[in-house]
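Researcher: Going back to the complex we discussed earlier. I've cleaned up the inputs and rechecked each line, so this should be the final set. Can you rerun the prediction on the complete assembly and write out the structure?
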Amino acid sequence: MTTPQTSADIIDLGPDLCLRGTRMRFERNAEIFGEEEPAEYIYRVVSGAVRTIRFSPDGRRQILAFHMPGDVFGVEIGDAHSCTAEAVSACDVVLVRRSLLQKAANEDVRAARRWLEMTGQNLLSAQDHTLILGHKGAGERVASFLLRFAERTAGGQHIDLPMSRADIADHLCLTIETVSRTLSELERQCAIALPTSRHVVMRSRSALMQLQAAA
Amino acid sequence: MTTPQTSADIIDLGPDLCLRGTRMRFERNAEIFGEEEPAEYIYRVVSGAVRTIRFSPDGRRQILAFHMPGDVFGVEIGDAHSCTAEAVSACDVVLVRRSLLQKAANEDVRAARRWLEMTGQNLLSAQDHTLILGHKGAGERVASFLLRFAERTAGGQHIDLPMSRADIADHLCLTIETVSRTLSELERQCAIALPTSRHVVMRSRSALMQLQAAA
DNA sequence: CGGGCGATTGATTGCCTTCAAACGTGGTGG
DNA sequence: CCACCACGTTTGAAGGCAATCAATCGCCCG
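Model: Rerun complete. Updated structure for the full complex:
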């Protein structure tokens, strides 16, 4: 439903600018690439979900982002990956050799431009995330997360979470317990419904918006 | 002391790749550019210090980064600035028309490459900052900040902070009081000395390193 | 039916924020 | 030259929120 089968095994950089690659399947929790590894490919999600991760010096993991069908990830500036990527659920991913992107960027200004834009978008996302983590409480973080995720998957009021509470917790810098408690609290306030733990129904979008913006 | 007068009014993008601009002086707390404003120039700090800021929906400010002499800032991907820049102290800044960077990127792959690298470096910094804010306490945040700042200014054990406690607080997502208390505590532990509130002497680098890495 | 994992709920602790007051310093005007 | 004021900083006391520790629940799968 999220991605039509017609999507070819390519990464689209704009008009007349497609890079051909190969499709590959990863099982749940499989590593797609690891931090410090040579960045041989760039990736696009076809189906399923992917998480990109970095680890703190003390071993805690921080989930930088979740990547949904259509999203491109693993595009590095240097020659090594700066983060790890894992399959949140079983997923199909298109791999395109990074040398193709490199070549395209050297020959076509538009490709270079596109590369820059993707990196810039990641930068803005990272900054947005910093703002959310900076001075927001658990309720606001979870509300922000749900709203943002709902936007990206375009499933209307219904959100199917592919990730566990632990994943959400490591993304929002909370504990599993706090995420769970917060979702329960939102349900108690009738802002959402939780038919199952992975299925969220947004009952009151405005309530979530209000929460998100709260001090 | 930080920057020799010999530095010309240019922004250096690598070998044979300098963009000419003009120098300008800003007084303490003066706005250099504002969020959403057209990004007409890119900037380099000559002397003094600059902060880049974004505001939360609720009005709180988040200092994304401090820029010291030699640092380039205000390089945007889109046509508008995504953050505000202000002078932390009175400072000299070089302004280069963004159209020159645009032109250089179109004509020379190395310039485009440099642009990409700068953005990528900002992305990594933003992610590092997320990691620090994510699961670290006040002591670790302040220790990280001091170590990082000391590295960048290369003043040996001596750190001259150009910014106020409020600036540090808004960078580390703490309150002024907590920053002050934490610095006092570090002094009590003999990790640092505080001859004046803006002058920090690192007494035990290893103690700070240890703190920084703590859970 | 049993086992294991993820999720939920409860009780307690600890850290940071908030509110409040005092301190020191630099600048200004008398 | 000194008194005064403003602002940034420091320190103290109390409260709130999320982390931690701990137990139970529910579900999927063997």
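Model: Worth noting: The first helix of chain A runs from residue 98 to 107.
Researcher: Good, that matches what I expected from the previous run.
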